[in-house]
Design brief:
By secondary structure, this protein is of the alpha/beta class. It has one domain: Aldolase class I (TIM Barrel, Alpha-Beta Barrel), CATH 3.20.20.70. It contains 8 helices and 8 strands. It has an 8-stranded parallel beta sheet with strand order 1-8-7-6-5-4-3-2. The longest helix is centred in the C-terminal third of the chain and has 14 residues. It is globular, with a radius of gyration of 16 Å.
Length: 216
């Protein structure tokens, strides 16, 4: 299976944001992954709605918006209006997850649920057939360039079993530390979407790196 690739714009050169987005437009990337961090849910602050709007202004690929924030329900409509086509919220941040998923769908976006490294995929059993995507964090969220957590492979396999068992159409997305070494193993385990930030944007030829990730 050819994976979908979602380069994380968080690792881009923000002084040349339009140029970076245009590079992704011309590449084999399938989505543009947009990491929103509030400094509360995760120990870092990235950017918010105005920058998301600026990315959307030039983007020709769907925006895959990952809300690493507390109280995500308060911002769903704003990010949808800013151009998000996929909105992922964290399991750990949502008290009423089913209601949040319903709200995302009502806005006309695809709904994703992200889970931190310590969160078991089995906890998604009651919601898996209502969502479009599960984002498995393969690093601790908050900073780019972290080392990939090896337990992710078995986590992907268990999630794939759950998806098949529940007859869900949810895609499995991996976010954090993805590279050419672990990508084929992740795909073999059942991953559908690979998020890559530093590995893409710090390479000498980001377009070729994206193409290489799609070649498995």
């Amino acid at each position: 299976m050819i994976p979908l690739i979602a380069p994380s714009i968080l690792a881009a050169d923000f002084a040349n944001l339009q140029k970076e987005v245009e590079m992704l437009n011309a590449s084999q990337a399938d989505y543009i992954h947009v990491d929103i961090m509030d400094g509360v849910f995760v120990p870092n602050i990235s950017f918010g709605i105005p920058v998301t709007e600026a990315i959307q202004k030039h983007a020709e690929k769907p925006l895959d918006v990952h809300l690493m924030i507390v109280n995500p329900d308060h911002y769903l409509e704003a990010f949808r209006n800013a151009g998000a086509e996929i909105i992922s919220v964290h399991y750990e941040a949502c008290t009423h997850l089913h209601r949040t998923i319903q709200a995302i769908h009502k806005l006309g976006a695809k709904a994703g649920v992200a889970i931190n490294p310590h969160t078991s995929v089995e906890l998604l059993g009651e919601i898996i057939d209502h969502i479009d995507l599960v984002c498995i964090m393969s690093v601790n969220p908050g900073f780019g360039g972290q080392k990939f957590i090896q337990n992710t492979y078995s986590k992907v396999s268990r999630l794939k079993e759950l998806i098949l068992q529940k007859h869900s159409s949810a895609k499995i997305e991996i976010d954090g530390g993805v590279n050419l070494e672990n990508a084929p193993k992740l795909i073999s385990a059942g991953a559908d979407v690979l998020v890559a930030g530093s590995f893409v944007f710090n390479s000498s030829d980001p377009g070729a790196t994206i193409a290489a990730l799609k070649s498995f």
